[in-house]
Write the structure tokens for this entry.
Amino acid sequence: MLVGDSGVGKTCLLVRFKDGAFLAGSFISTVGIDFRNKVLTVDGVKVKLQIWDTAGQERFRSVTHAYYRDAHALLLLYDVTNKASFDNIQAWLTEIHEYAQQDVVLMLLGNKVDSAQDRVVKREDGEKLAKEYGVPFMETSAKSGLNVELAFTAIAKELKHRSMKLPNEPKFKLHDYVKKEVRGSGCCRS
Ligand SMILES: Nc1nc2c(ncn2[C@@H]2O[C@H](COP(=O)(O)OP(=O)(O)OP(=O)(O)O)[C@@H](O)[C@H]2O)c(=O)[nH]1
């Protein structure tokens, strides 16, 4: 499930991952909740991800609360060009703590890194916050595609590992895996 303030790029991130495209132009806010499926092959095993895209707007909050309970993983986004969306991360984490399963897989994503000139949230601030809460962290761009595949693959690997629990398989380490992240703005393919 994708969560975070309105306008941080949740729908665009999902569309980039699902269709490999960027929704340029006018911003159409998600109403309530929507989902898309994508099948990934992870270590030779097919994993079907059902990805729920939530509305970031406050007025839909009661709708999204109802979905937290069934989520196996949450991608929590802020927009590196919008300080308020970063400042609200703690409130989102409180909400997640209240409504989601205790062992939910959680990852923090700083999106829109292609907009280097408009950046107001430093990479180190994202890293620091993620470290404080023990959450894996990456910077992404739905516009350029930077780290989008990697973020969803990391989640898929973790979920596959949890569901299969093969005795001889080494433990998958999500925190280590996200170190494959490509740094920079990744500017720009549409
Ligand atoms: N430059 C840039 N713009 C982006 C990126 N991702 C999204 N946007 C733009 O940000 C705006 C909001 O994107 P959405 O994906 O609709 O945001 P959202 O988080 O789904 O918003 P809600 O549905 O209201 O919760 C749109 O105008 C997008 O084109 C990105 O990675 N880079």
